Structure formats: C-alpha cells, structure tokens
User: Which sequence fits this backbone?
C-alpha cells in the first residue's frame, strides 16, 4: 500500500509561468512547498469534478465554458484553475482557454492507464488526515503517540476495507499507481520459464494481470485478504483471463504462502519493519519451488538515501500509516540473502518503482531458471 502527498505532483508539469524563482518573497522550491497544499487540493477537486476529463476530450476551454459544461460555480472554478495554471499544471492561451500539457495528460485523462485521479482522492481523504499524527510522533515517539492517541497508527486496512465502496476506491487507486509500470516490471522479471506466479498481497491484481497478458502460458494466484476477492474477480472477467487468474484468501502474517515458482511482493514489504519483512521472505523461500524466484517491487531510495523526492515523502507517510519504511536496493538485497535467496540483484525501471530479484537455488540435478 502506498500513499504520499508528494505523488500529487504531476510528472512532466511545466515550470510555472512566473518562472522557477518563485514570487520573489521566497525561493521557488520553498514557495512550491509552502503552497503545495492548495495545488494538491485543486488537483483532486478538478479531477473529481471532471475538469481534466473535459479538457482531454474537448480541448482548450475557458472558465465559463467549463463551468457551464460541468455544472460548477464559475467564480470558484476560476480561482481553482488559476492555482493550477500558476503552478504549471495547466496552461492557457491568450484567449484564456485552459489546456493540459501533453506530458501531464496521461496522468490526468481518466481514459489513460496512468490516470491518478483515484490516488489523488485517496491522498486527500485518507493520507492527509493521518499525517496530522506526525506531530504526536515527533514529540512523543511512535509508541508514545499510539498511547496518547489511544489507537494504533498502522492499521489503515480496517478503515480502507470497511465496506465495498471503500475497498473499491482503495483498490482503484492502487491499480492506477501500479498497472502501467507493471508492464515494464514484468519485462525486467523475465518470467518466460515461470509456470505459477503467486502475487502476495496483490490487491486488484495489477502485476498479476500484466504478467498474464505478457506470458500466455503463465497462471497466477493473488493471495490477499478476503475483501479483495470480488474486485479481483471483476478484473479477471474484464481481461478475460478465466482460470488463469485465481484468488486465495488469507493473511500472510498468520498463514504460509501458496506454492509457486515465482513469488511476488508488490509494494508490500515497505509496509513492514525489517523483522517482519524477513519473516515474509522466509515464507516465500519455503513456498518457492527450487530454481524459482522472488520479486520485490517497490519505490527505492537511491544511494543518496534521500532521493527521489516522492520516495522521501512516502517514507514519511509510512511512519503513520504502516510499520514500514522505504529502503535502498542494497537494503533489500541484504534481506533477500538473509532469507536464503541467492543471485540477488536490483533491476531499475524508467519509472519510480523498481525490481529486486532473488533466486532459490535449484535442487540436485536441476537448473536455476
């Protein structure tokens, strides 16, 4: 599970029309950080009320035209659009007609696989509220904050899965963040020899579906909490995967993992502390066929330990949403080796999420894939 206010920044957004230096009252990076709250809120509202969808479908439009077409208040919409233009999310021609820059369009057009509207809504409705708990963590420490607040800081799933609507909304957000990059992760994983993929905590199946679409001879099992089952069934039907995509209900903390020759953890281990990650990887080792592989997919800090910015922001969110953190590739390699895997390596995508791979040694007389 992954959520961070930093992700509300739209990749490829143009530099604001006022220039990179800010208003003159403060440096540009500081100004963007101070007023980022308004940008995130404006992005979320514009996405939910169809502004970006309208621009993507009908092209440049003025405030009055958009307000009329979408049934919105023109004054409020105009102020919102001004914020998005000032921060480079939208551009406007001399006639005041707004457009989405081409680089940002795949992230703001609901018809695109990289659309992040659902994730923006999750940020504003869930993550923002939980970030308020950082004050208690900062002054009291995590354990002290939990005692003072009389509630655990790291049990978001009970709320996210409280009913069918909440579950669908969360799984949709995770799909939007994961499906598009999954195609690249599948290529890096080199699954040509795999027969059975077990996607641990696979949610709505973005990685499993991408793998099945790329490898016709593969079958996949998503192992996750029972609430996920209906959504996965819808996904399987939508992609006409039939029996190739199956669901196994369970809690990976309490149960052993289904057996397969490829075990995948997509954005799961960053939710947990090292000792829990090691326990899960040891379960994966036991479930993995000799010669098989384990795949860890996640955001990674680079060697600097603080970049990229979205990973740093996510790392802070993890402090109040989970028990985990984001790690470097080297850190994951250590965990994989400690769990018994060999031939471990990091493979980078062109995006913000990457692959760390480990192999289970083949049995006597066998060969590793």
Assistant:
């Amino acid at each position: 599970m992954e959520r961070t206010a930093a992700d509300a920044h739209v990749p490829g957004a143009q530099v604001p029309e006022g220039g990179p230096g800010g208003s003159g009252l403060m440096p540009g990076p500081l100004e963007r950080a101070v007023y980022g709250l308004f940008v995130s809120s404006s992005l979320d509202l514009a996405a939910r009320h169809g502004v970006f969808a309208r621009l993507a479908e009908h092209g440049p439009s003025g405030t009055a035209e958009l307000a009329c077409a979408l049934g919105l208040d023109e004054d409020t919409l105009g102020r919102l659009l001004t914020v998005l233009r000032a921060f480079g999310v939208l551009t406007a021609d001399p006639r005041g007609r707004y457009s989405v820059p081409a680089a940002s369009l795949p992230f703001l057009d609901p018809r695109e696989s990289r659309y992040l509207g659902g994730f923006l809504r999750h940020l504003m409705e869930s993550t923002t509220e939980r970030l308020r708990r950082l004050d208690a963590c900062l002054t009291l420490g995590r354990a002290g904050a939990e005692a003072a607040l009389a509630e655990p800081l790291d049990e978001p799933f009970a709320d996210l899965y409280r009913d069918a609507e909440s579950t669908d909304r969360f799984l949709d957000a995770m799909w939007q963040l994961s499906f598009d990059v999954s195609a690249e992760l599948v290529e890096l994983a080199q699954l040509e020899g795999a027969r059975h993929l077990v996607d641990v905590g696979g949610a709505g199946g973005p990685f499993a579906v991408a793998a099945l679409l790329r490898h016709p001879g593969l079958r996949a099992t998503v192992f996750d909490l029972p609430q996920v089952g209906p959504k996965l069934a819808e996904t399987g039907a939508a992609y006409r995967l039939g029996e190739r995509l199956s669901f196994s209900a369970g809690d990976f903390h309490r149960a052993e993992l289904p057996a397969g020759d490829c075990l995948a953890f997509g954005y799961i281990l960053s939710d947990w502390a090292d000792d829990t990650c090691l326990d899960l990887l040891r379960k994966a080792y036991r479930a993995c066929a000799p010669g098989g592989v384990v795949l860890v997919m996640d955001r990674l800090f680079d060697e600097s330990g603080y970049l990229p910015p979205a990973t740093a922001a996510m790392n802070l969110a993890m402090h109040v949403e989970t028990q985990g953190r984001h790690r470097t590739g080297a850190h994951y390699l250590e965990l994989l080796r400690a769990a018994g895997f060999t031939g471990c390596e990091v493979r980078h995508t062109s995006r913000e999420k990457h692959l760390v791979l480990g192999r289970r040694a083949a049995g006597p007389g066998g060969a590793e894939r």
Observations:
- Residues 5-114 form a domain with the Arc Repressor Mutant, subunit A fold (CATH 1.10.10.10).
- DSSP finds 15 helices and ten strands in the chain.
- The chain has two domains: 5-114, 172-359.
- The beta strands are 91-92, 98-99, 196-200, 219-224, 245-249, 260-266, 288-301, 327-328, 342-347, 353-359.
